[in-house]
Structure formats: structure tokens, C-alpha cells
Write a structure and sequence with these properties.
CATH class of the largest domain: Alpha Beta
CATH architecture of the largest domain: 3-Layer(aba) Sandwich
CATH topology of the largest domain: Aldehyde Dehydrogenase, Chain A, domain 1
Strand content: 15-25%
Bound molecules: nicotinamide-adenine-dinucleotide
Distance between the termini: 73 Å
Oligomer: single chain
Largest sheet: 7 strands, mixed
Helix content: 25-40%
């Protein structure tokens, strides 16, 4: 068994920018500190890309695209290279997982069993898909042939958050690269290390210089420079609604580039009086909000429960929450790790205070210290929440469940939809009719019935309303990294 604490002390992560196939410091030498949320200590100083570095990365990506070295290479070549990248991710599973755990606070067990294998699966899935998607021949008049083909867009800027750094990066870079685009990835400033290692593995796999660049840096500097760059054809963004909307402004004020947004959520679990298995529901609800310490965009942060089962269900949810092992991300037994930063920790604790001031009953809600100096909050439940209150409406992004009591399915769906967000929802019922009717009526990009968080690359993921309009995953993502081209070929009259 690996001693993860020892392994963490001997880690020497790559901290420089990856531009044009080379790791280099920022042009002005600037760096920022990346802190381990498990103990609040410095892991490393990472190069901070400025406008100059982002410009160099984008120009290198554009030149690589124009050269055709990747964009016009045989699909099977791209397939082989991306398959090799997926293999390399698994061959380097322990190092990648350790970087993810130390930088983001995910438990090492999750990083090894979930984050790295999932990200590798996404890369492999898109690699395998490249030679299985067909273009179209339109039903044109006899005198012509009309082809509708997908072509790569050019340079894709991918801007990602800190909650699932590897998984979310893979959702974006894999389909974009598979289609032949060049990519500039801007990781979140809290979690740049696994992205830089991914860059190294991509080079090793044979992705040509310039085709995949990684530019860590501060959002308002590096993220903005990418968003405003005239040679970027598309921004694919996951993060907060405010910053996502900022990217629409950057696009409007620069070259009108495409912008795909995956934003936040306040996903409801509806539990109706006829729910068959309250133990299963309690487990789905507790894991749905406490996994990754609640820092999941589609985390089930609202429980909308019928009054007939409220007490029985809540007791079980609290019991599951208490049974989860909250601790040091570097211990293999840990099930719930840290909040990702001190700032996010303060935000979660502020919401605990708001819940109290809004009259909710707070169960849990305290900072705890399994490792001194780390950012940990115990699983927390707010009961008696008015769905219109701040804790009913605002995304907390922490291990905090807001519970609202209702009567019947109709009220439950109305309350569930009374939210600016629409990322995901779940309904627990034994009636097939109620399940179908509720699933149709819920305004959310994903609806689960008698389950929560079943997910895979095979289905699209994204939101309605303020949760954004982009879709990651599935074959649909290939469309979002390509443009349709129509080619008309005049055939003349019908004689040969
Ligand atoms: P964030 O919006 O602060 O940051 C996301 C990215 O944008 C980071 O790379 C950051 O550096 C960059 N950025 C920040 N300010 C910027 C600016 N002014 N200009 C350009 N770029 C800027 O979000 P976060 O705090 O990292 O992540 C948490 C948020 O992400 C939550 O709201 C969560 O719900 C959302 N999220 C959504 C999904 C989804 O798929 N819908 C998935 C994960 C997280």
C-alpha cells in the first residue's frame, strides 16, 4: 500500500506553463501559490500566465491548426494518439490521483477510483468515437449533390473550475481534440497541477506542439485574455454564473466567438409519500450532497420532501451523513475530504449563519479539524427552509442540504422549479406515472428517478435556465466542437 503522506512530500509537480510544446515560466516571471486544503500549507508556486503568455499560447494553437499537423491528420492517427493519452493517464494513475488529492482536497480513494479513471475513460471514449461518426448527404435535387460535413472550429479555449479539475477538463479537451481542434486549457488557480501533468502526458502521447497548451493563471487576467482573444473560435466554460456571463461579454466585445456555458446549480431531490425505499433515498440524498464536500455543480442541495415522510427520511439522511468518514484526503479510509480553499470555507460558514438568521434548524454546520490548518466542514442539514429564502435559492457549494416540506407531487414540482437554476433533479416515488410526469415537468438538464448521480460520458450533461446552455459529454459534444459545412456539387442534367 502506498504511503500517500510520504509520496506527497516527495512530489515535484510541473508548475510552468505549457506553450507550443514547451514548459516555460511566465514571460514576466509571475507566479501564484497553490495551497493544499488538507492542511493550509503551500504545495508549490505556479507560473501565472499574463496576456502575453495567453497570446503566445493562442497563436501557437492557431498556427498548429493552420498547419494541419493535427487538424487535417487522419482520424485514425488522432484516434491512436488519444488512446495512448488515455493509457498514459492510467499508467500514471497514482501520481495524477495524488496531485488531484493534494491540490483539490478530494480523498485519495476517490481520486484513484473516480477522478483519474473517469477522465481517462472520457479521453478513450472520444478517441474510439472519431471513426464512428458519419456526415450527411442532403436530399438535394437530382442535378446536385449536397454534402453536410462537420469541420473543426479552430482554437478552443477551455476554462474550468476547481471542483473536478481532471474530469471537467477531459469533458472539454477530449471531444475538442478528437474533432481536430487546437486547445488552450486554463485551469482554475486553486487546482492547476493535474492539468499541467495532463499536458506532459499529451506531449508524450504524441499530440503535436501547439495543439494542446495549458496556461494556469488568475481568472481576471489569463481567463479574460483567453475570452477576449480574437484568434479563439470558441470558449467552453464551466464555473460560476457571474464569470460565465462575463465570457459572453468578452465574446461580444471581441470577435463574437462561440461561448458554451456550464454553470451552477441548486438541484432538488423530491421525495414523495409513496417513495418505496426510504433507506435508498436517504443514501442517495446524503451522498448526493456530501460527496466531494458538496462542491459538485449538480449536487442535490435541496430536499423537497412530502410532510408524510419528512421525519422518517430526515432521521436517516442525518444518520448516513454522520456515518461518513470525514478526514485527511491522504488517508485511504476518508470518504469526505476538504473544502477547496479558505475562501470557500468562509463562504460555507457564512451560509450556516444565514440559515440560522433565516430561522432554519441547523444540524451540524461546524468547522472541524481532522488535520490542523485544513478546511473541513461537517455534513450539515438545514431543516424548515423556506424555498424562497437565500439558503433555498443560492448555490452554497458546500456540504449543506436545505430541506423544505411540501404536500403532494404538484407542490413538490412547483417548489423544485422555483429556482434560477436548472442543472439536475431527482424524484423518488413508486408510481411510474408520477415519475414520468414529474420528470417531464422538472426544468433540469438531467432528471433521475429513484436514484441520484448515475452518470457517464454516454449521456449529455448541462443545464437549463441560469445553469447554462452548453452540453458536455456524449456524441453531441462533437457537434459543439465543430461547425457544419455545406458543399453543393452541381451535377448538371441526368445524363452520364
Ligand atoms: P469561477 O467561475 O470562479 O471560476 C471558473 C474559472 O473561471 C476558473 O478557471 C477561473 O480562473 C476563471 N475565472 C474567474 N474569474 C474570471 C474572470 N473574471 N474572467 C475570466 N475567467 C475567470 O468558478 P469556481 O469558483 O472555480 O467553480 C465553482 C462554480 O462552478 C460553481 O458555481 C459551480 O456550480 C460551477 N460548476 C458548474 C459545473 C457544470 O458543469 N455546470 C461543474 C462544476 C462547477
Amino acid at each position: 500500500m502506498t504511503n500517500w503522506h510520504e509520496a506527497a512530500t516527495s512530489l515535484r509537480p510541473e508548475t510552468r506553463l505549457l506553450i507550443d510544446g514547451e514548459f516555460r515560466p511566465a514571460a514576466d516571471g509571475a507566479t501564484f501559490d497553490t495551497i493544499a486544503p488538507r492542511d493550509g500549507r503551500l504545495i508549490a508556486s505556479v507560473s501565472a500566465a499574463s496576456d502575453i503568455d495567453v497570446d503566445a499560447a493562442v497563436r501557437s494553437a492557431a498556427a498548429a491548426f493552420e498547419s494541419g499537423v493535427w487538424s487535417r491528420s487522419d482520424r485514425r492517427h488522432r484516434q491512436r494518439v488519444l488512446l495512448r493519452l488515455a493509457e498514459l493517464m492510467l499508467e500514471n494513475l497514482d501520481e495524477l490521483a495524488l496531485l488531484e488529492a493534494i491540490d483539490s482536497g478530494h480523498p485519495i480513494g476517490d481520486a484513484r477510483r473516480v477522478d483519474v479513471p473517469n477522465a481517462a475513460r472520457v479521453v478513450r471514449w472520444y478517441a474510439e468515437a472519431i471513426d464512428k461518426v458519419y456526415d450527411e448527404v442532403a436530399p438535394a435535387p437530382e442535378s446536385a449533390l449536397a454534402l453536410v460535413t462537420r469541420e473543426a472550429l479552430g482554437v478552443v479555449g477551455a476554462v474550468v473550475p476547481w471542483n473536478y479539475p481532471l474530469i471537467i477538463s477531459s469533458w472539454k479537451i477530449a471531444p475538442a481534440l478528437a474533432m481536430g481542434n487546437s486547445v488552450v486549457l486554463k485551469p482554475a488557480e486553486l487546482t492547476s497541477l493535474s492539468a499541467l501533468m495532463l499536458g506532459r502526458l499529451a506531449l508524450e502521447a504524441g499530440i503535436p506542439p501547439g495543439v494542446f497548451n495549458v496556461v494556469p493563471g488568475l481568472g481576471p487576467v489569463a481567463g479574460q485574455a483567453l475570452g477576449r482573444h480574437p484568434l479563439v473560435d470558441k470558449i467552453t466554460f464551466t464555473g460560476s454564473p457571474a464569470v460565465g456571463r462575463g465570457f459572453m461579454t468578452y465574446a461580444g466585445e471581441s470577435n463574437g466567438k462561440q461561448v458554451a456555458l456550464e454553470l451552477g446549480g441548486k438541484s432538488p431531490h423530491i421525495v414523495l409519500a409513496d417513495a418505496e425505499d426510504l433507506d435508498a433515498a436517504a443514501s442517495g440524498i446524503a451522498w448526493g450532497i456530501f460527496y466531494n464536500a458538496g462542491q459538485t455543480c449538480h449536487g442535490g442541495s435541496r430536499l423537497i420532501v412530502d410532510e408524510a415522510v419528512h421525519d422518517e427520511l430526515l432521521e436517516r439522511v442525518v444518520a448516513v451523513g454522520r456515518s461518513l468518514v470525514l478526514g485527511d484526503p491522504l488517508d485511504e479510509a476518508t470518504q469526505i475530504g476538504t473544502i477547496a480553499s479558505e475562501r470557500q470555507l468562509e463562504r460555507v460558514l457564512d451560509y450556516v449563519a444565514i440559515a440560522r438568521s433565516e430561522g432554519a434548524t441547523v444540524i451540524g454546520g461546524d468547522r472541524v479539524s481532522p488535520v490542523e490548518g485544513g478546511y473541513y466542514v461537517e455534513p450539515t442539514v438545514f431543516d424548515g427552509v423556506d424555498n424562497r429564502s437565500r439558503i433555498g435559492q443560492e448555490e452554497i457549494f458546500g456540504p449543506a442540504l436545505a430541506v423544505t416540506t411540501v404536500r403532494g407531487a404538484e407542490e413538490a414540482v412547483r417548489v423544485a422549479n422555483d429556482s434560477p437554476y436548472g442543472l439536475a433533479a431527482a424524484v423518488w416515488t413508486s408510481s411510474v406515472t408520477t415519475a414520468h410526469r414529474s420528470a417531464r415537468a422538472l426544468r433540469a438538464g438531467t432528471v433521475w428517478v429513484n436514484a441520484f448521480d448515475i452518470a457517464d460520458v454516454i449521456t449529455p450533461f448541462g443545464g437549463f435556465k441560469a445553469s447554462g446552455s452548453g452540453r458536455d459529454r456524449s456524441l453531441h459534444a462533437l457537434d459543439s466542437y465543430s461547425a457544419l459545412k455545406t458543399t453543393w456539387i452541381h451535377l448538371g442534367d441526368d445524363r452520364l
